[in-house]
Amino acid sequence: MSSEYIYLKNKKIKVSDLSKYVPFTMVNNSLIIIDICEFVCNSFFLMEKNQLKKSILINLLKNKSQKIKNIAAVVMLSKKEEIIRINCNYISSEFSVLFKYSILFDYKKNKKQNFIDSSEINSVGIKYFINLFYRLIRNRKLKQTQTIIRTWVDVSEKLYKEQFNKSTILIYPFGLNFKRGLKYIKNTFSKYENVSFMGIPYSFKKFIKIFLSKKKDLAILDFEIDGHIKHAKDLENYKTIYTSDDFISAVPALYNEILPRTKIINTCHGIGFYNPFNNYNEFYVINGQQKKYYNYKNFDSIFYKIKNVSSIGKKKNDKFEKVIVIIDQGNLKKYNFIYEHKLQQKVYSKVIDVCEKNNIKLYIKPHPNRNKKESGKLFNRYPSLKAIENLEELKSKNIIFINLYSGAYNDYKNKGKFIFIKDEFFSARIFFGNQIKLIKINEIERELILS
Asked: Of the chain's two ends, which shows fewer C-beta atoms within 10 Å, N or C?
């Protein structure tokens, strides 16, 4: 199979290598990608009559399609570089309306019937069986409460701490970090009484249909909608549902069945930007950037800013020692964020060099989703880094945080000064707005010495 390329004025880029040249975190969190998902849905799936199905398909395309991300990346790249020609069988001349100048397209018609990643088909198999298992072992003798909390991992307890003692707590499968998920399960069952495992009642027939169908995008859509509509019966007797599920593509189908008699309250669990379409009554976001993204297609939700997000930074104390804390973004290669992965490596190397040269103590706050193997590789590569889990150990220090785009900024900005790293393409302002301090890598030494 021949490689597909994007031809610029002075070079060509493999489509499969786009994440080396474009920061996909910015692609994923832009309004451009929502418009592209809607364009693809209208152009190739013709779903204008069924708004619910259309909304969930757009969510699936946004969350589960590398092709969509690549298209959005090319559109973003076209604003930085002059694209001459596109040789890609799913970026045809039909997409020319997305670009602001004339480009030569090698394909006149899109050659792909499906946009959702083929890897998603394999994960559907794991999803079906793990959700079935969680349903089989669920607690069928739960005490009836007026409120219920849908949870996946420890962040749910942090978001809804006040509600945990008086609500039913459902624990759903968490696939990103098995150890972290298991720790949350043990902790929750030991601390609270009204707790149960829970899974989505996916249909085996629709599960098999995914593997047999040529139109796999629509088969996955049918599988997800059917499972979430059926799951509504498990939740219909509660007055209020607390959740943090704006990353689950088909939740609009779930809540569509129980609204308006049940109130749905969602709180963002981090700085991510996920479903373009949701149907919550109340939507708690971290900042104005998230509100702008989620409000783009959701006109009925009432948006609030999370109350515990501090806007005040800690003042410098001249009597305290200066220390640097790098906020780790985790294993970015795992998510195909190659541009950001390379930028993170450059930042680590530069900060380590500056701290060693100027005798400044340096720590790193590891990302909670790094597994043991990934953490081992990190500290083998950078042996001088010292992990710190509890920042209270540094309360008598002047902390300077180095960050790319971690939402830890909202948790820790009252503990020290934050500095974000930018380059000619990447900027964390898409996540946090214009109030953050941005510097380039070659400015790190001067900034750390003067701070």
From this structure: N
